[in-house]
Amino acid sequence: MRIDKFLKVSRLIKRRTVAKDVSDQGRVWINGRDAKASTHVKVGDELSIQFGQKKVTIRVELLTESTRKEDAAQMYTLLKEEAFQSE
């Protein structure tokens, strides 16, 4: 599954176009490497996503084409959440 679709289906990012833009801006990493919107993600991969002043690291647990809002959080496990200090 493409990274932009995973981010949308898992509801980490609400819209696929926003997920594509975030990926193409270099704010998403898979297993420590830069990920573009078309990069494929698989179960067990670690994703790091930079949202403004925070960085979230998750592990992919499940890949599905669509999911209900209640089940979206089962697609990943939150590993780390860091806040950056502004200077």
TrEMBL record:
Extract the InterPro entries matched here: RqcP, S4_RNA-bd, S4_RNA-bd_sf
- Gene3D superfamilies, sorted: RNA-binding S4 domain (3.10.290.10)
CDD domains on file: S4
Xref: SMART domains: S4 (SM00363)
The RNA-binding S4 domain sits at: 1-63
Alphabetically sorted, this entry's keywords are: Protein biosynthesis, RNA-binding, rRNA-binding, Stress response, tRNA-binding
Q: Name one Pfam family in it.
A: S4
Q: Which family does it belong to?
A: Belongs to the RqcP family.
> What task does this protein carry out?
Key component of the ribosome quality control system (RQC), a ribosome-associated complex that mediates the extraction of incompletely synthesized nascent chains from stalled ribosomes and their subsequent degradation. RqcH recruits Ala-charged tRNA, and with RqcP directs the elongation of stalled nascent chains on 50S ribosomal subunits, leading to non-templated C-terminal alanine extensions (Ala tail). The Ala tail promotes nascent chain degradation. RqcP is associated with the translocation-like movement of the peptidyl-tRNA from the A-site into the P-site.
On assembly, the entry states:
Associates with stalled 50S ribosomal subunits. Binds to RqcH, 23S rRNA and the P-site tRNA. Does not require RqcH for association with 50S subunits.
**Do you know which HAMAP family this protein is assigned to?**
RqcP
Instruction: Return the protein name.
Output: RQC P-site tRNA stabilizing factor
